[in-house]
Structure formats: C-alpha cells, structure tokens
C-alpha cells in the first residue's frame, strides 16, 4: 500500500517558484514540494528571522542548535507520543474499551517513553543490544552488500535505494532476530510500511492499514518468541528473553514492541542514511574521489553525511509545563518540532555548514537525537552505512547520477529519496 499522498510529481523545478516562496513571510511548511526537495534554505531563514517559530499548524518549530540541545535534554519536554494531542487522537482513541494495536505498540517504544519507564526499558534493552553484537555483524553486512552489488554489477546501472539501501537493513535486522530466510520477504513488506508509524500525522486509511500491519507482525513475532522460549538460539530475540536486571525483565509486549521498533526505525533510518549520503557524494565528486583514494576516512565521512543531510529531520516533544525559550513562552501541552536537520546546519555550531567536508573535525550532530533518547541503534546504522558506501564507491567505478530530477518521499519526520538511479563503468 502506498502510504504517501499524490503530490509526488509536483516537484520544485524553477528558481522563480522558490523566490516567490521566499518573498512571503517566514514560515515553516514541510508540505511544500520545494521544501521537500531542499529544506535547508528555509531552515536558514527561520533560524535567522524566527528561530523559535509558531507554525501555521499550531506547533512550535526550533531551528537553532543550542535551542535543540536545550529542549532535548530538558525533562519539562516529554517524548511520549500520547501527549501529541490532536495528531494522535486516531492512534490512541479507544474503541470498545481498547486502543488500537498500533497505539499499544507505539506506547511501549523506548523512543516515546519518559523516565522512569524509559530508564527501566533502556537499562534492559541495552544489555542485549550491545556494540559488540553489532561489530560481530560486520562480516555478514559485507557479505550482503557484496551480494546485492553482484546482482547489478554486469548491467552498468542500478537504483541505490531499491537495489542496495532498502534490502540491506531488513536483511541484517532479520539476521539479528533469527528470522528464518523463507520469511524475510514478508518482513520486507511489513518494514516498508512500518516507518510511517513515526509520523505525527496520518489519515484514517493509513492508520487502518498500519494497524493491520502491526497486528500481523505482532502475531508473527509472538510465534517466533514462543519458539525461542522452547529452544533458545544465539540471536537478539534470545538475548532479549534472557536479559534481566535486578530481578526485572521485559514483558512479552515490551519485547515484541522493541523488535517492531527495530524494524520501524532501524530500517528507514539506514535506508535514508545510505541513499542521502550517496547523493551528497555524487553531487560532490571531489569528496567521493577523496574517499575512494582514502577509504580509511569512511567513519568521519559517514558522520559528515549524517550532519549534512540527516535521515531524521525532526524530533517531537510536548511541554509538560510552561517553558520560556528565546523570550517566547511554550505553554503546557503545546508540541515542539525540534528540527535536528536545521540544527545540523547551524553556522554557530558548524563553520561553513552548507559545505560537505568528509574530513571535518568530529562534531556533535543531532542526527541520532541527543540525551537519554539518543538512538540505541545508531551503531548498527553507522556500520551498515560505512560498509555499503565504501564498497559501492570502490566496486562501482565512475558512479554518476542518471537523472537531474529526483523525487523525495512525502514525509515530515524522515527525509529520503524514492529512488537514486546511477550508472557506473562495467
């Protein structure tokens, strides 16, 4: 099912249209086609003219790095999506005394929990999802990347999104969870939809479809967990079952929700990191050539690509009491969109922020959020991107874009391409 609107072909194509947009009063409108194509000029203007901005949607928009840090570490701002007001009514509305499976699952995602619930769940999950587990996957990730590139190597053309970025993370996560090979196509279909769970706005049709997907996925995982309880295996589900902390352990629903979150967030973030990163390198051939000549730069390169065009553009918070920022009062109950994509281009924090420089000194970008809600899957996303991008550059010589017109997904939280067609020398 297509979970986007029908505006995909309405792509910004003229300087006059952008100039007309800029002639209007400063505003935040992520639904504009020209914003989807390139949000950064809009972010720069907001940051300069109205860095704590009340949007036409009735939510606050934060674009400065310092303000983003302040909000993300302030306990007066809640991550709990059940506080998102009118945008979440459909997800958490009771029907016959029950909220939807989607709402039940979302409410147990560590991403959307506040202390003390967040503290407890993080303490348990982090014992199973360790950096050592991720590092142990490097050979398998390399194997999958090689396999995907071998499938297109003789053609001289590929779509980096469909041929590499999309299949890689779902295959890796399925391996981590111990999903049988024959079930991975089903998981791929589910994972394509699950990222829409992260969006703060959804229609009734999208909600109904996502609820069905989560129901099916939960039933599948419940069966898989039952098998692991009977016959333990050395995989992430087995580790999550076994983990204990001072007599505490994950409930069945928490375990299932954590596995679904791994697919929903881990899949799409990695897809967009690889594809956005490769687009940036294709548009900066000097940087791609530098990386090709010095592949040991890949770790710093991926950090710069994360900063330059972040897969996650926005993090949502809700004020649980009145808070003053930049002489403006954010009232209790109001939503705040922390634009991490804008913060990553703040010239106060990042000199020459619109320049892509893979040798840029390590900087504290916010692409994996900040504070207690920093992404637990960041290491996995980084490792996959490092291997995918380095291997692609080394194995596919003379990589070039095959189109001047790229289409971007119609999403608010995440930023990613629908396709990234390239050619290369055989």
Describe the structure.
GO terms for molecular function: heme binding; iron ion binding; monooxygenase activity; oxidoreductase activity, acting on paired donors, with incorporation or reduction of molecular oxygen. Keywords: Heme, Iron, Metal-binding, Monooxygenase, Oxidoreductase. The structure is a single chain. The chain has helices spanning 15-23, 33-37, 40-49, 65-72, 89-92, 101-106, 117-128, 131-135, 138-152, 160-165, 167-177, 184-194, 204-230, 236-242, 252-282, 285-293, 298-308, 340-343, 378-395; strands at residues 52-54, 60-62, 77-78, 157-159, 315-319, 323-325, 328-330, 335-338, 400-401, 421-423. It is α+β, with helices and mostly antiparallel strands. The strands form 3 sheets. It has a 5-stranded mixed beta sheet with strand order 1-2-8-5-3. A 3-stranded antiparallel beta sheet has the order 4-10-9. A two-stranded antiparallel ribbon has the order 6-7. Residues 1-23 have low confidence and may be disordered.
């Amino acid at each position: 099912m297509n979970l986007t609107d029908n505006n995909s072909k309405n792509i910004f194509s003229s300087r006059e249209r952008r100039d007309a947009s800029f002639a209007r009063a400063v505003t935040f409108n992520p639904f504009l086609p020209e914003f989807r194509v390139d949000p950064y000029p809009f972010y720069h203007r907001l940051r300069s003219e109205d860095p704590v901005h009340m949007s036409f949607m009735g939510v606050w928009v934060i674009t400065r790095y310092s303000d983003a840090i302040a909000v993300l570490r302030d306990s007066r701002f809640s991550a709990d999506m059940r506080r998102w007001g009118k945008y979440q009514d459909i997800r958490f509305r009771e029907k016959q005394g029950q909220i939807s499976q989607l709402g039940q699952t979302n409410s147990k995602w560590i991403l959307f929990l506040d202390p003390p619930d967040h503290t407890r769940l993080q303490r348990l999950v982090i014992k199973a999802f360790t950096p050592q587990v991720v590092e142990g996957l490097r050979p398998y990730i390399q194997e999958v990347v090689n396999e995907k590139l071998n499938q297109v190597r003789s053609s001289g053309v590929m779509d980096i999104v469909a041929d590499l970025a999309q299949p890689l993370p779902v295959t890796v996560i399925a391996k981590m969870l111990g999903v049988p090979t024959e079930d991975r196509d089903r998981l791929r279909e589910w994972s394509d939809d699950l990222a829409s769970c992260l969006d703060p706005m959804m229609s009734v049709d999208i909600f109904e479809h996502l609820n069905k997907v989560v129901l099916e996925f939960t039933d599948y995982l419940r069966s898989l967990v039952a098998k692991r309880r009977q016959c333990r295996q050395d995989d992430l589900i087995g580790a999550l079952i076994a983990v204990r902390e001072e007599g505490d352990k994950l409930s069945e629903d928490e375990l299932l929700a954590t596995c679904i979150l791994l697919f929903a967030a881990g899949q799409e973030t990695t897809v967009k990191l690889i594809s956005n990163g490769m687009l940036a390198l294709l548009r900066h051939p000097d940087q791609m050539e530098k990386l090709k000549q010095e592949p040991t730069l890949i770790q710093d390169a991926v950090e710069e690509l994360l900063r330059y065009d972040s897969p996650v553009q926005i993090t949502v918070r809700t004020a649980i009491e009145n808070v003053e920022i930049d002489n403006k009062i954010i009232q209790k109950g109001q939503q705040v969109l922390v634009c991490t994509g804008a913060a990553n281009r703040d010239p106060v924090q990042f000199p020459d922020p619109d320049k892509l420089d893979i040798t840029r000194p390590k900087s504290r970008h916010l692409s994996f959020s900040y504070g207690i809600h920093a992404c637990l899957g960041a290491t996995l996303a980084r490792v996959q991107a490092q291997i995918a991008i380095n291997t692609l550059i080394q194995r596919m010589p003379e990589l070039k874009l095959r189109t001047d017109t790229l289409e971007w997904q119609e999403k608010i939280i995440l930023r990613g391409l629908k396709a990234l067609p390239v050619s290369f020398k055989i």
